Amino acid sequence: MHQPPLPLTRDLVLIGGGHSHALVLRKWGMSPLPGARLTLINPGPTAPYSGMLPGFVAGHYTRDALDIDLVRLARYAGARLVLGAVTGMNAAAKTVSVGGRPPIAYDVASVNVGITSDMPAVPGFAEHAVPAKPLGPFAEKWAAYLAGTGPARVAVIGGGVAGAELVMAMAHALKSRGRLAEITLVDQAQALSATGPKAARLIRQTIAELGVSLIENTGVARIDHDKLVLSTGQEIEADFITGAAGARPYDWTANCGLDLHEGYISVDAHLRSSDPSVFAAGDCAHLSFDPRPKAGVYAVREAPILLNNLRAAMGVGRPKTYKPQRDYLKLISLGGKSALAERLGTAVQGGLMWRWKDHIDQTFMTRFRDLPEMPATKLPAEHAAGMAEAVGDKPMCGGCGAKVGRGALRQALAPMVPRRADVTPLPGDDAALLQTGGARQVMTSDHLRSLTDDPVVMTRIAAVHALGDIWAMGAEPQAATVTLILPRLAPALQQRTLTEIMTTADQVLMEAGAEIVGGHTSVGDELTIGFTLTGLCPRPPITLGGGQPGDVLILTKPIGSGVIMAAEMAGQARGEWVASALDHMTRPQGQASRILKDAHAMTDVTGFGLAGHLQGLAEASGCGADLDLTAIPTLPGAEPLAAQGVRSTLYADNRNLAPELSTGGKADLLFDPQTAGGLLAAVSLEEADDLLTELHAAGYPAARIGVLTKAAALNVTD
């Protein structure tokens, strides 16, 4: 008898992907708590490890070396990842607010968001300077500046340890590039006040040796496009200005309903806030029982205690007490491959210290790089013939990658013929065409096996995917019913999940012009979301069969979502690739459909891949097609993953639809099943350029990818 998964009964929400939470997720993956639904909320798919930032700036590390990939980590831990910035928290209601989505409810929550900066408050900073955090934009702009030529003029605001490390790294990098540089470090108070006298003296000596000018006890009055204007009136010319000063808590914590100390969340020795269901760790927390300075070492040491106490709050075990160390080893980068070590007033510097620091940093990051991949399904010792082939060597994909192959569908549907006069036969088209009281109405149904554990994102994808059939017919969405299969959840979690799904579905469909008029729910092993939709055709529908030889083929979205999500399931995809794919899948195509209203033929590219859907359009139109492989846009990461041999489970079926086409490299993506893919339109040659211009102006990454031909064959050129 089939044994369904155990129900989820409590929501544990981790706010922020800081060091403490990253370690909690790593340990949770080794021993998850049955019944707990774990959620991580973070603005982006990665979390930078600040300890290696100076090494990156100096040129010792690549950009990728700094990032903890939260997408892979969440997959390993079995956590749903919500990508978005927290805008508020209501401890009384036990909810967290994230922009653009319904509130996220919790039973137990933990906050590990670090701190932010006051730098943008300096007049002109937002317009003319680059904050050191968030790391992504800073890293991109610094790399571009470093790659330039000619003399460099750099200014860093903030003379603490972070600012000193940053300015020394910049000086080293510019010197290594052979660029003359004028570099200035400015602090409104005495620089390096948090270090001991000997350490401060050695760092000052290194700063001077690197040719950096240090200005202390002087504030910044304003920033212009090419200079700093100091409070004394002195002007410092600079064409790259950054800041590492003014650390402060995030604004949203002020109204969260928790006890605060100077804006930071006060916690007791159990890392528990004034609300026993909310914990905090790292720089955003104030250790009220034993105040400590803001330093990453405390966040790392807090992680095991935090994990234990979160489990205790969920009903397992007893809380433990965190005892912070009185002092800790400070390892400070000095620009080149040299570092300073300080503890208990003693300071030592040199290459050995840098190698020690590098070893500690690399050891920490290796914990998150070397995550086990999802194991292949283990077959029983005795099983029926054909089981190994049916299971395959990959985990079953979600989205349109879980679709039944086209061959099986065609055979099953072949005997079915319309018997009603008000149903117009359109074999293989995107939607059925009905005549209802004199109105032309199209109707379609789609449902998707979840490919992400975030029900809000999955709902957006499923709705956009289903609407694609309506838009491909040139119709206007009208009404929808929703079909949901929820995993086993406690009643409170059922209500939370349904609220997230239905609120999101209503928003997406309302923006598309449709109304939800009903639906059905049931409980099963995993989340599945489906929609049945109707649309109205103010003009004759755009079918598959109207294409003409010479028509230009336009594709409105890049391909590759199947490969990327298959790699994500196996822990092989980079987080930013997954985030980009999800973003593209949630983008509606309604405006594109209206722009392409005069297309001769149109379809949406989904489960059968670009080759399969183009073949269907060409066959219905009595044409062939020439595709320009180099012109076909792909999602970031899709081509390298395809080159590695990553495939969706539907790839083989799709490949069999066009066996005459060559494979290998980018060509394999022609058979990649797409979820909520773009529109593929055949338009007249005379209108193609204007349509592309209009699509680009509307924000669609549309491309001209080929033409329809007289010869009834598909050809690909590269």
Automatic annotation (TrEMBL):
Full protein name: Selenide, water dikinase
Keyword rRNA processing included in the entry's annotation: no
Domain FAD/NAD(P)-binding span(s) in chain numbering: 11-303
CDD domains, A to Z: SelD
Protein's organism: Falsiruegeria mediterranea M17
Pfam families assigned to the protein according to its UniProt record, in alphabetical order: AIRS, AIRS_C, Pyr_redox_2
PANTHER family for the chain: INACTIVE SELENIDE, WATER DIKINASE-LIKE PROTEIN-RELATED (PTHR10256:SF0), SELENIDE, WATER DIKINASE (PTHR10256)
Taxonomy, superkingdom: Bacteria
Gene Ontology CC: cytoplasm
GO BP annotations listed: selenocysteine biosynthetic process
Gene that this polypeptide is encoded by: selD
Stored Gene3D superfamilies: 3.50.50.100, PurM-like C-terminal domain, PurM-like, N-terminal domain
EC number(s) per entry: 2.7.9.3
Domain PurM-like C-terminal: 548-716
Any one GO MF annotation of this record: oxidoreductase activity
Transmembrane segments: none
Keyword annotations of the record: ATP-binding, Kinase, Nucleotide-binding, Selenium, Transferase
All residue ranges annotated as the PurM-like N-terminal domain in the record: 428-536
